[in-house]
Amino acid sequence: MEKYIDKKNHNHDGCFGCSENNPKGLSLKFTQKGEFVESRWNPDDCYQGMSGRLHGGIQALLIDEVAWWTAKTIHGTSGVTARMKIRYRKPADLGQTFIIRGKLKEVIRNLAIIEVKILTEQEMLITEAQVEFFS
Fold first, then answer.
1. Which domain holds residue 111?
2. CATH number where 105 lies
3. What is the mean pLDDT of the chain?
4. What is the pLDDT of residue 42?
5. How many domains does the chain fold into?
6. What is the distance between the alpha carbons of residues 99 and 18, in angstroms, rounded to a whole number?
7. CA distances from 18 to 36, 53, 110, 120 (A)
8. From its phi and psi, is residue 108 left (phi > 0), alpha (psi between -120 and 50) or beta?
9. pLDDT per position as a tens digit, 25-71
10. pLDDT more than 90, % of the chain
11. Any idea of the CA torsion for 119, 86, 70, 125, to the nearest 10 degrees?
């Protein structure tokens, strides 16, 4: 079952990743699908690194943002990213919509371990990460 995540009750007015009030931001929207939190995003060319490819730093930002919303939605906590281990698997070609999907893997004391993947709409893995979220 898919459930839209309402951001109105959260103080993220200036957030580059999720605020709809930040004119330079990404304005990401999120849904919960069972144990997953997901965002879909189709980047403009201004987010490229190499010609026609999504910049790796922007991919890290997408991962970080989905990890936060996963911790908040699934684990019911908020906090900050303590560590992020990213593995870039394939080039992220622009001109398509990306799925950024997070899943809470485990909780160790005050660390939520979150797995985040960036996929194509055909579910091809582009980038994967393990995020340790300190709450």
1. 2-134
2. 3.10.129.10
3. 91
4. 96
5. 1
6. 15
7. 17, 22, 24, 20
8. beta
9. 898 999 999 999 999 999 999 999 988 999 999 999 999 999 999 99
10. 73
11. 10
